[in-house]
C-alpha cells in the first residue's frame, strides 16, 4: 500500500502517460449516494488532461478486512487503501475510465497482502 496518499505519481497508464494524483476528500456515501461505502475522491492530471475519480470502498468489506489485518478502521487507512487501488487501476487500465470505481475484494486483498506489517 502507498505510504503517501495526499499527492503521488502513478503510471505509466496503458498509453504511457504518468499521472499526478491529489487527494481531495473522504466521506461516507450513505447519505450522498445511498451507498454503504466510504468514498475517496482524487484529482488526476497528466499534461493538459484533468479528471477526477472516486474510489468507493464497500463498508462491510472494510470492516472485515480491518479485523483480518488487525488495524483500526480509520480515515487515513481508507485513504491509503483507495490511493493504492487507484494507482493499480491507472497502471493496469482496469476500471480507469470510470468516474466512480467500486473497489473489488480480490484487488483489496492483494494490496493488503503487499502492505508492510
Describe the structure.
With 117 residues, this protein is α+β, with helices and mostly antiparallel strands. It has one domain. Helix content is 37%, strand content 32%. It has four helices and five strands; from the N terminus they run ββαββααβα. Strands 1-2-3-4-5 form a five-stranded mixed sheet. The radius of gyration is 14 Å and the shape is globular. It starts with 6 loop residues before the first strand and ends with a helix. The mean pLDDT is 92.
| Shape verdict | globular
List low-pLDDT spans.
none
Strand content: 25-35%
Overall number of strands: 5
User: Order of strands across the widest beta sheet?
Assistant: 1-2-3-4-5
The averaged pLDDT comes out at 92
Kindly summarize this structure in a few lines.
This protein is an alpha+beta fold. It is 37% helix and 32% strand. The model has no long low-confidence stretch (mean pLDDT 92).
Record the SSE blueprint.
Layout: E1 7-10, E2 19-28, H1 30-33, E3 37-46, E4 49-58, H2 59-69, H3 75-92, E5 100-102, H4 105-114
Question: Which labels suit this protein?
Answer:
117 residues; alpha+beta; 37% helix
